[in-house]
## 1
Amino acid sequence: MPDIDFWYSIGSTYSFLSIMRLDDWCAENNATVKWRPFNVRAVMSEQRNIPFAGKPVKSSYMWRDIERRAAKYHIHARLPAPYPISDLELANQVALLGMTEGWGKPFTQALYRIWFEDGVEAGSEDAMSEALFRCQLDPLPVLARARSPEAERALSAETEAATALGVFGAPSFVVGNEVFWGDDRLEDALSWAKVGHVV
Amino acid sequence: MPDIDFWYSIGSTYSFLSIMRLDDWCAENNATVKWRPFNVRAVMSEQRNIPFAGKPVKSSYMWRDIERRAAKYHIHARLPAPYPISDLELANQVALLGMTEGWGKPFTQALYRIWFEDGVEAGSEDAMSEALFRCQLDPLPVLARARSPEAERALSAETEAATALGVFGAPSFVVGNEVFWGDDRLEDALSWAKVGHVV
């Protein structure tokens, strides 16, 4: 079965559902998913794609839809979470650094819990430090490394890779050349990986 | 079980999937759905919600996603269909007139086939006339009635009713006070109607 790449951005609201349910889902479906943080804000800004700012009705709906679907997946959440987040770039640079060092996934999961359960904005130094603590890491040196030009370049390179694949929003699941946008397309992506079409 | 209202607009691309699959889906699920055409363009314009214009990557994805999901539902389509359509108001005034006279649903289904299978833009007089012919109606007098101030007012009233419910896009399914946006939320709407939460 081809791999499923999970492109997400800390800062994306719907990514919460995928981040919280993917481990169980992979175990149930005997699937492997590669977690790939990128800078969705840069992509959407470039494409003039502004889904929620200045759109109160659509924004309210988004929170209600996430609330209903979180309940469906038995995921705890206190909504609405603070939105939008401030330092999206740094949060995803930390996550990407963590992916190369083996703690990127638990960091992301801890940070989303802090954001969606405790109500602390995910781009804040408080939230990131707490998430790193929960991964038994010393926040200050990690944040310093995540602010380095190398870490910035690494996130830019991943963001360019996502864009080259046709990814325009988060979360997206990519199987070969096929992009599946949205937590609600996870099953479509699995189906594509298994049989080459959506069932 | 509470009713499910199906708010759609001729002119909405994702409404195609619902319009083509709802009859079979209702039979399979022993569900009743009320078809309610409205003017989604007026609502989205008011809310400055412009999902596809000037967004080529997102637009390409939309057609690919519809193509994959149409195949999943065994619905024939020749994509991309001409988009956007010209006279969205008139097409939906015809459909709403038809809802009061018993031919609104077959007219809508015929018009989407003409648009998505034959490639004739659904807001054109050619497409609307052909769809009315297929419903064994004489197009000229129907189109004249659909252009009347009464028909305009009727569509405006339905559009206001949709807005009051929190509908901001098409298709939307509404159960009581709950809005479910997108063809992919039809199962969530049914679940809500049956048990009051999403399963």
## 2
Amino acid sequence: MRILIVNGNTTQAITDLAVGEARRAATSGTEVVGVTARFGAAFVSNAAQEAVAAHAVLDALARLYRGADAAVLAISLDSGLAAARGLLPIPVVGMTEAALFTACMLGDRFGMIVLGRDSPPLYGELLERYGVESRLAECRSIERSLLGQDDALAERIAQEARTLAANCDIGAVVVCGVVFTGMASRVQAQVPVPLLDGIACGVRQAESLVRAKFPLAYRSAAGPAPGMTGVSPELAALSAVPPSPKDK
Amino acid sequence: MRILIVNGNTTQAITDLAVGEARRAATSGTEVVGVTARFGAAFVSNAAQEAVAAHAVLDALARLYRGADAAVLAISLDSGLAAARGLLPIPVVGMTEAALFTACMLGDRFGMIVLGRDSPPLYGELLERYGVESRLAECRSIERSLLGQDDALAERIAQEARTLAANCDIGAVVVCGVVFTGMASRVQAQVPVPLLDGIACGVRQAESLVRAKFPLAYRSAAGPAPGMTGVSPELAALSAVPPSPKDK
Amino acid sequence: MRILIVNGNTTQAITDLAVGEARRAATSGTEVVGVTARFGAAFVSNAAQEAVAAHAVLDALARLYRGADAAVLAISLDSGLAAARGLLPIPVVGMTEAALFTACMLGDRFGMIVLGRDSPPLYGELLERYGVESRLAECRSIERSLLGQDDALAERIAQEARTLAANCDIGAVVVCGVVFTGMASRVQAQVPVPLLDGIACGVRQAESLVRAKFPLAYRSAAGPAPGMTGVSPELAALSAVPPSPKDK
Amino acid sequence: MRILIVNGNTTQAITDLAVGEARRAATSGTEVVGVTARFGAAFVSNAAQEAVAAHAVLDALARLYRGADAAVLAISLDSGLAAARGLLPIPVVGMTEAALFTACMLGDRFGMIVLGRDSPPLYGELLERYGVESRLAECRSIERSLLGQDDALAERIAQEARTLAANCDIGAVVVCGVVFTGMASRVQAQVPVPLLDGIACGVRQAESLVRAKFPLAYRSAAGPAPGMTGVSPELAALSAVPPSPKDK
Amino acid sequence: MRILIVNGNTTQAITDLAVGEARRAATSGTEVVGVTARFGAAFVSNAAQEAVAAHAVLDALARLYRGADAAVLAISLDSGLAAARGLLPIPVVGMTEAALFTACMLGDRFGMIVLGRDSPPLYGELLERYGVESRLAECRSIERSLLGQDDALAERIAQEARTLAANCDIGAVVVCGVVFTGMASRVQAQVPVPLLDGIACGVRQAESLVRAKFPLAYRSAAGPAPGMTGVSPELAALSAVPPSPKDK
Amino acid sequence: MRILIVNGNTTQAITDLAVGEARRAATSGTEVVGVTARFGAAFVSNAAQEAVAAHAVLDALARLYRGADAAVLAISLDSGLAAARGLLPIPVVGMTEAALFTACMLGDRFGMIVLGRDSPPLYGELLERYGVESRLAECRSIERSLLGQDDALAERIAQEARTLAANCDIGAVVVCGVVFTGMASRVQAQVPVPLLDGIACGVRQAESLVRAKFPLAYRSAAGPAPGMTGVSPELAALSAVPPSPKDK
């Protein structure tokens, strides 16, 4: 099986980080390949950059999904996820989505750790869209200034996770964000409840969906509707699918 | 005062239609100019096309907002609206947002008319985001095949609006969608409750916001954060704003 | 255009304050007149007084709406608003409603400043009714003892607004309550985000609704149903409208 | 024990009907007295009339609560209920509130029967305020034209109740509205699930609250705040209570 | 009238405590009898014990409901309540349910006091199921270590109740949990708002439901469906009722 | 890896059916074993039987979880799921929970097919608890009389699934209920969207959770709290775990 990791940021190092974690989480026999956004922000950090990232994710998927059995989005807000599902004949999983649903299967409530004091509301909207906001016990944030200092960052994440485990009756902590990739397994031994990594959870969910052999080819049945101009030819072609089989 | 109408579709005729209605709705002294998306779909009709449209809207705004006092988005799902507000030092109003809030000021409940049998759930998400879903009495849809036949379309819209007025205790009907621009005023005389046009409502709200002289310059205060690559230079420059003043 | 400001309190000075702010906010050519409740509390401050104020607002509107093109309610909880809309053939706007919807068009989330430690739950119910409670970031309160000391009050409002702007990712602050009328513009220069005044927002929304020329005459089509006794003859006559056109 | 039935309509016959049912439902030893609104509509049937009824209910309570151990509101929308509770040192129960909570103790879901095709949304707001809207299985309406024809009305109510019992998994049906008073017991034998009458439920709840001897005197502790003018002297005096003990 | 108090814990002393309070709350002429769970935990304190308690409550009810006019569950989470209602031809009331609905009839908002720092989320789910979570102002907890020290416990409950009354605009405090039975009346004199005891409220609600003579026999109409094995013969017989009259 | 399938019904044939499907869905190297409830209903079909089933599920898990790496509940309402998670040091997955979260990863909305006209509300509560009720497009039911007639049942399920796919914009259909086990794969070829089987989804999720090696031993750390009496000794021992590490 072949899984495509799609980084919605333009930084190759983030792709490499995500691909590395994906390989650790995958079962033997699963091949992991990565792709980096061709345009947009080095590291998405505001709403305009996120809107462009959704386009860049679709652009990357359209060019490279052939040959892959599933895709995992390596961008914290799962940008472009719903749109990608409407286009592609293979399973597409969001890293945060996968971690959240996994957390729900480990207990009634979960905690979250995110990057940046202003991020909890953004993730609040995401949780609401997925339907799991009532299951969040508490969301704590890590200051952005720690990025790049891996030891200090790991220490802070462990500390916040222990605080969550001590204060709330939770079954897991979602360590949320592509820049935290790998941190969950790094500090797990210091925390009494499961820590969830979005990329690792995403790969495991993608593997499950591939094994189920669900029929998804109908999603990309080409239709007579005109595609887009000014975007990559692959995306233009894919997006010419009629909006729905029900209203021709 | 100068208002910029931003069409998220690539079809110039839609821009012309929207600019025409905007000019009818504007007070004397307001100048209206239009811009058409440089890339994306001729007429956005699925989620992938909508994701690209959000990028195209930001691209158009970044290039042309200078000299304008406010912008109105001429795309039914208000694509890119929240992101645009984080970037620009002028008011930005969504056409559907403006119609919905106007409807709320005309009665406890309102009706909606949308294009396409599969569209109500899409607008449901929009209403939920704006917070007004509990005020929707009923959403009815018009078949896509009527597009291009203006007389038949007008007749169908009038008929659905009368049905809504007869069945529900509503204060207004939002005639939703940029392709329906102008239809509300065209058939108003045949319907006993107010019909709302997104572009007209958007222009009136934009005028109100401009007159209030709210201080919005802080939104685009340039910061040290890196911008985007592979996008228009104007958008790259604008989006380099730090994500928030609170977490440097 | 002529706009009627309806003060649901019996204090003439509050009417004068509201009319003054309304005149500042109105465009040239708009005439503003005020009316004070004939009965009820000098300054509404509990639920029983608010119930009576709703009656007093309807009483004032019924007597004086003729000749006006729209009405704005100058009472913080928008008392009687929905009932007034069912009676009158002109637009009626609540001061808090107008400020809240305006705030929604300036950003995803807004803050609020209200009078009295026990007031936030009251406004919570109002926000829920309008549907915008999910968009409130935080509501802060000003102690009642500052009423009458305008300089100290202005200083406190500016301070709370700056706290809101610093702590939350908000697009505006609603300075809520008819006794705070004028404070928003007075302290705007000291606060980095827009401050919204209910009366000013209400006048601007009323002007927009009037300009749209929506057909509202159907609301007061006299019917055979009996009116009320023991109330003003004007209100008795107006309220004889049948409850709905749909269930005769 | 003495229970005061407060009719928010100005029709004495409705008071008589409610007092009669209240006496049937009360335990021996409970005295029931009635009072009719001094002003307002003969039978409240739109929002303006309901706003005035809330005032009339407070007016009646202020004049007559002395000597009563509890009050039950005999008006379908429980008009003035929350305000009355803030004023009076005795329990006040709404007829619809009492029926709804009683229904919740008879099963997970309940049905409702109301007067008028346009009424379900009105009751929807009431249910939302009480918090029990998720427990409503279905609300069915009876046409207004049957009022006055008691046999036909009884037959229709029985028929709708049987439909509700057959279609939904409900534990009770609330026969909602003061004009339906007495109908529940009249047709109970024809329906397989409990039918609830608001007045009967209200009296039983009022009796329970009186027997519990809850300390409520604090609600009407007179304060220095100014009362109202232009209303009955009793209401003016009562409403001079400070808005809350917490914010002097 | 005869009311059966069903203790879902296996501790006889808790049954005795509940029966004692029930007798104090009942009107003269009401006989109160108690039954203790035959299996399960001495004092239910986690989810697995609660699941077993639901079975034990049904087991006790099935064996002893004959001859009783109503039952009140003496277990804090009302374990087995909905299931019991589907089986028995008499009213069944949960102690916490009864206290919550009573609290709702004393004011817009109420406070709660529960045992154990980790309990508020458990009760949160219960409130959500009943529909009254929006009416909870605040839930405070008492440390488990005080159990058994009645004077200290009473002092702590009084203190928390006064804090709730001082901080929130509440109409009542629910003193929640079967081990707190009797505490509400013990410390009422020290607290300015009503304190509600679940057993006392449950008995009062049960008496009301019995007096209403609602037809409930249909609930236990025996059907052809097979019952259970490995449970008490009485429960096996009762549970053979068809799942619903609507889908044979 | 070894997965334990826990049938909450007492019918061995249902266990066999579930184990068979589980083996089909498992990857090679996964051993599947089944256990049947020792007491309760042959096929759970009302709330009382479901309450007993939760106990029976815990009883079976306590006796047999040792040696298993994960457990999947083979009972449609996931009875006892949350309680089991609080007791056991291995992952426990509900069959319906697993199918619902899998459906969420295949599209924005999903459909459901359940057994019995009265079942949709029961599943509604389950969806609300999991948080995914807003993602349900429509729930359709199959009449109970078809049970036992496999060909007719398969035909009806295919027909309802095609109706769901044609009417709603869904990404998957959850074929819900342990008696439908195996039907999804049997009729998949006749339906254009993925059909989800709870047992198959549950096994795949259980495998994912086992592979992640989450630390769960803390859940069953024995504590000094007393266990239960009158239940199996294994369940008594396990449930003696203190209610939470946070409130000793």
